[in-house]
TrEMBL record:
Secretion signal span: none
All residue ranges annotated as the Acyltransferase domain in the record: 184-591
Protein name in the entry: Acyltransferase 3 domain-containing protein
Any matching Pfam family: Acyl_transf_3
TM annotation in the entry: 118-135, 188-206, 226-245, 266-286, 347-373, 468-487, 514-534, 543-563, 583-607
GO molecular function, one term: acyltransferase activity, transferring groups other than amino-acyl groups
Domain of life: Eukaryota
Taxonomic source organism: Eutreptiella gymnastica
Keywords, ordered alphabetically: Membrane, Transmembrane, Transmembrane helix
Taxonomy of the source species: Eukaryota, Discoba, Euglenozoa, Euglenida, Spirocuta
Amino acid sequence: MVMNSGIGLNTLGNYDACLALPEAHHCVLTVAPPVPRAPRNSSWLAATPLAMAGACVPEACGEAEIRNDAVGFLEHLSPEIAKKLGLDVAALLKDSQVDVTCSENRESFGADVTACTMGALVVILCFLVGLGTYLEVHKLKAIRGEASSSSEAEQSGLLVQVLVAFSAVKNTRDLVAHERMPTNFLNGMRYLSILWVILGHVAVFTKPGWSNISKVDEVLGNYSMVFLFGAFFAVDTFFFMSGFLQASVLPRHLLKLRRKPLHGLPLLYLLRYLRMTPPLLFLIFASRLTRYVGDGPVFHHYQRSGEWLHCEHYWWTTLLYINNFVPHDRLEMCWAWSWYLSCDFQFFLVVGPLLLAVAYGFVGPVVVILLLVEVVPIILGASSELSALNRSYFLPWNRCSPYIWGVLAALLLQRLTAASTASVGVRDVVASDDDEHRGEADLFFEEPRLPRYVSLLLRVARARWSRWLSYATAGVLMWTGMTLSWVKYKGEWAALFPGATTHPWATGYDRLYGAYYVICWGVALGLLVIPWALGHGGFVKEVLGHAAFTPLSRLTFGIYLVHPLLIEYTTWQSRSYPTWTTAGVAVAFLGQTVLATMASLCLYLLVEKPAANLIALCVPMKKS
C-alpha cells in the first residue's frame, strides 16, 4: 500500500493499483490554498485546491481518522517548512480547510432527481431525432417516386412538421449549406476565435494543479505565453462581430417590420432570446449527468464543485442574462463563462432603438451617441484597474467598446458601399455611340455629388497604399495589446502562487493598460474588416471565407457553451498532477478542440437546430 501512496503534497500515488489491492481504498487529503496575495480581488483561482496528497490505506481507516492524523501532522509542522509550502497552518486549522475523501465516497446518480430527469430527456430527444430523420427520409423517397404512393409526401401536417424539425438529415443539410457572401470571412474569424478561447481556457483552468508549480515564474515568463494571455481579446472579437452583424442587418430588417408594434423590436428581442436560450437551458441541467460518469482520485472535487450548487440557486439569472450582475459574488455565478451571453444580449437590447434611428436616416446622431458612449469604457478602464481577475471584467460598460466599434464599422461600410455604388457611371449602359445620345445620357444619368468626406474616404479605401497602412496599423495594435496583456497578467497570476517573485503592475501602468485595452482590438478589427468587406483581402480573406468554415462557424455557439465544462470534466479525472509544458498544452488544446466540436455537433442536432426550426414554425418570418 505504501508503494501506491503519494510521497508528499501534489502527489496522488497510484490510484488504480491501490483499488486493485484487497481490503484497500484510496484517500485524498486536500489542503485549501492560501489566500491569494494578488490585489484587485483576484480570488477566482482560490477555488482550485493546489495542495493534495493521495494515500493507499486499509479500508478500516476512515476519513475522520485520516483527517485527524493530518491535522496532528500539520500542528507539529515547523514554521520554516510551512512557509516554504505556502501554508498558513493556524488559518487552515481554524477554518477547517483540511478535507479527506476516500474512493468509495462518491456522489450517487439515483439521488440526483435533476440528473435522472435530464437523462430521460436526452433519451426522448434522441428518439425524436431518429423519428424525424425517418420521416424526412420517407418523405424524400415519396417525392422521388420510390415510395408506393407520393401522396404521403404531401401529408405534411403540423405534427409531421414538428417531428421533421428534429430530422438529422435536414439539420445536417442546413449545417453545411454555404452561400457566397461578401462577409463570409467572418465565419473563419468566428471559428478561429473560439479556438483561441479554448487555448486560453486549457492553459488557465489549472485543475487539479501543476506538478511544476514552483516554476510558475519561469513558465509564465516565456514569451510564447503571449498567445495564451492574448486570448482575452478573442472575446472582444466576438463582441465586434456581433455589433458589426447587427448593424449590418437590423436597419433594413426593422423597416420591413414597420407595421409591427415598435417596428417589431419586441418581436426581435423575443426571437433572439428564444434562439439563444434552449441550448443554454438544456446544458445547465443536462451537464449534471457528467458528475456520475467519471472516475479518478480527485474526481470527487468535480462532483462536489460549487458550480452545481450555484446553478441550483442562480440558474434563473443565467437564463435571464443578468448573471453578470446577480449574484454579486462572481464565485457564485451559475456557468460563469456565460457572462459573455449576458453582455451580448444586453448590448442587443440597447442598440436596437439606435439602429431603428439609423434605418430612418439618423446616422449622424447615432454615431455621435456611440462615440460618446465609447468614452465610458475608456475612462473606466483607466480608473477601475480593469482585470480578468476581478468583477469589472464582466460588467457591460467595461466590455461594450468592441461592440461599439463593430457597429461603427458596419455603419461606415454601408456608407462607403452606397457611395461606391452611386459613383459607378451607368452612362455606358444606356448611351449609344453617337455624341447626341451620349449627351442625353450625361443629362439624365449625371454622377451624383457625394459629400466631400465620403468621397475622400472612398478614394482612400480604394488606394492600395491605404489598405496596407490599415493592415499594418491593425497588426501593431493587436500585437502590442497581446504583449501588454502578457506582461500584465503574468505578474498578477504568478502572485497567486506561493514562492513567486513576479509582482503585479503599479497602479499607474495598470490604468494606462486598461484605457488601451478597451480600444485597441476593436479599432484593429475595424481596420481589417472594412477593406475585406469592400472586396479586398486577397488570400487571407479567401481562406477565412472558405466553405469549410461555414459549418464550423455554426457550431461555434455550442463549442463556446460546452468547452469549459469538458475541460474541467476531463482534467478532474487526472491520475496525477500534470506538468506544464508547451507541448502538453498543445496536445490538450487539440484534444479539447475535437471533443468540444463533436459535443457541439450533438447539441446542434439534439437541441439547437430543432428548437430554431420549431420557433420558425411558430413565428414564420422571411429570412433576412
